[in-house]
Specification:
Elements (H helix, E strand, L loop, with lengths): L1 H34 L6 E6 L1 H4 L4 H4 L4 E4 L7 H6 L1 H4 L7 E5 L2 H5 L4 H18 L4 E5 L11 H15 L5 E4 L6 E2 L2 E2 L13 H15 L1
Parallel strand pairs: 1-2, 1-3, 3-4, 4-5
Antiparallel strand pairs: 6-7
Pfam family, one: Lipase_GDSL_2
Protein name: G-D-S-L family lipolytic protein
InterPro entries: Ester_Hydrolysis_Enzymes, SGNH_hydro, SGNH_hydro_sf
Length: about 210
């Protein structure tokens, strides 16, 4: 009886989580229904909330049609579920992905995260073999500093993954966000996890050459 109850609770939680993401994904697609121009080349930035709350992405890269399809709280498996809606629908020439941050927090192993990123990569290449994929390293943060070794291990595996294919690139945002051996304190909002404008300036500097 206890087993059935646990299975029921787990299934209910999973369905509730999916429902939350479905609503957010629907909101994103509705937004870009009016903004997206299929006649122009597009660049997609997607992943978890560090992408979602980067509000001035389009202004940072005014020469491109930028799609910000980040959705808060997501893990790599969530992006895999919505790859068609959040990436392929926009036929991007480049895709920037930030996943792994929440995965590590939720006790997923780097090997498991990499496996999911490979699945996402394969879907993108199946849709268009010429697409360029840029994987953004997990970032350091005040709130999750105790997990830094796991994040660094994940980043090494992501970088290694990108060496297998010329269409893949790795951007390290970990080191630029450090002050010596500690994470910079003045680049986050009050929760110690999400970045302020100083944090995004670091990301912009790290990413701009990959956009251009």
């Amino acid at each position: 009886m206890k087993l059935y109850l646990l299975l029921f609770l787990f299934a209910s939680f999973t369905l509730q989580a999916q429902s939350v993401f479905e609503k957010e994904v629907e909101s994103i697609t509705k937004k870009y229904d009016t903004l997206y121009d299929a006649s122009k080349e597009s660049i997609v930035f997607t992943g978890s909330s560090s992408i979602r709350v980067w509000k001035d992405l389009q202004q940072r890269f005014p020469d491109y049609q930028v799609i910000n399809s980040g959705f808060g709280g997501s893990q790599a498996t969530d992006l895999l579920q919505f790859t068609n809606n959040l990436i392929l629908h926009y036929q991007p020439k480049k895709v920037f992905i930030y996943e792994g941050d929440n995965d590590i927090q939720n006790k997923k192993r780097p090997k498991e995260i990499i496996s999911t990123l490979v699945e996402i990569q394969n879907l993108i290449f199946k849709n268009n073999p010429q697409t360029q994929i840029v994987l953004i390293s997990a970032k350091p943060s005040i709130a999750r500093w105790k997990l830094r070794r796991k994040y660094k291990r994940l980043n090494r595996k992501i970088e290694k993954m990108t060496l297998t294919d010329g269409r893949l690139s790795f951007v390290d945002v970990w080191k630029p966000m450090l002050d010596g051996r500690k994470v910079k304190q003045d680049i986050f909002v009050s929760d110690g996890l999400h970045m302020n404008s100083k944090g995004y300036e670091i990301w912009y500097t790290a990413l701009k050459n990959y956009v251009n």
